[in-house]
Amino acid sequence: IINHVVPLALHNQIKDATRHFFSLPTEVQSELLQADPFSPLSHTIRFKPYPYMNTKLLPCILREPFLNFREKVGSLAHGIAKEILACLQINADLLSDTRIRRQTMTINYYPCFPDRKFNYGIRPHPDFGSITLSMQDEILTNGMYKRIEHRVLTNRYIPRISIACFYAPTKDDDIGPLGKFVSKRTPLMYKAIQLGDALNHGFNRPLNKKSNLLYSAIN
């Protein structure tokens, strides 16, 4: 995406803050660890900017750049969602508020690892979210759109940083194929599921390509 609303200076600021945070002693980083994947800050140092979240939970070095980044990327996400809905000829009022109202920011730091034999990074997987063509998008369009599978490999010589922003329904929202994508020619492929159930299903299993679609698929 070019000509977006996130300034280069803010990109650099958030990357510098991330490097600084991951250079801190392990015991300092561990103060943020929580086992519950739905908590505002979890064991992956995942920032979920819910309206009720106390931003003081964020470390000082991350707070300002991440809040600024959230605001800018949030505007970009709404614009992308609007264009996607227009391409699908779906009324923006039907999905825009629901499908991207849950925001999650995940800081990923991958130390360099010279031995390629054990250089795994993250397994191939699709994301949970509405902006990437992931599980929900394939379900909503009844298989018309295919989710994107990807993975991460660590670098042999330098650390890698990624800051992923996810925009999705809340865990209490239901996800199912939209009526306009179901017909005699394209019969129903997926049942409606609650996002929270799908997330629990995914979090309790190793990352893989198929399990979450199979969870929703109609036999």
From TrEMBL:
Domain Isopenicillin N synthase-like Fe(2+) 2OG dioxygenase: 139-169
InterPro entries assigned: IPNS-like_FE2OG_OXY (IPR044861), IPNS-like_sf (IPR027443), Iron_ascorbate_oxido_reductase (IPR050231)
Domain of life per record: Eukaryota
The protein's name in its UniProt record: Isopenicillin N synthase-like Fe(2+) 2OG dioxygenase domain-containing protein
